[in-house]
Write a structure and sequence with these properties.
By secondary structure, this protein is mostly helical. The protein has helices at 2-30, 34-43, 46-55, 57-70. Helix 3 packs antiparallel against helix 4 (57-70).
Length: 83
């Protein structure tokens, strides 16, 4: 019984560490840089602020980037909430 415990515990720890490494790698690709947030807060337009409020920083930065790249953000305005 002890032999199985000695073999199983290191294997479980190793697989857990590998899984956490994959999660960390995904999170590092998804994160938003501080400079992007500062630039957004300084130059955001009303539709981008509404997107920040309604959909979060990801959607708001997407609209902000689209506006900077070519002004297509006006086509992608967030829908107004019903209520």
């Amino acid at each position: 019984m002890t032999v199985w415990f000695v073999i199983a515990v290191p294997l479980v720890i190793m697989f857990f560490a590998l899984a956490m490494e994959r999660v960390e790698h995904r999170l590092s690709n998804v994160t938003v840089r501080e400079e992007e947030v500062e630039e957004f807060l300084e130059q955001a337009q009303p539709n981008e602020v509404r997107a920040l409020y309604g959909h979060g920083i990801g959607r708001a930065l997407e609209l902000f980037r689209l506006r900077r790249l070519g002004g297509r953000a006006a086509k992608l305005r967030p829908r107004k909430a019903r209520g």
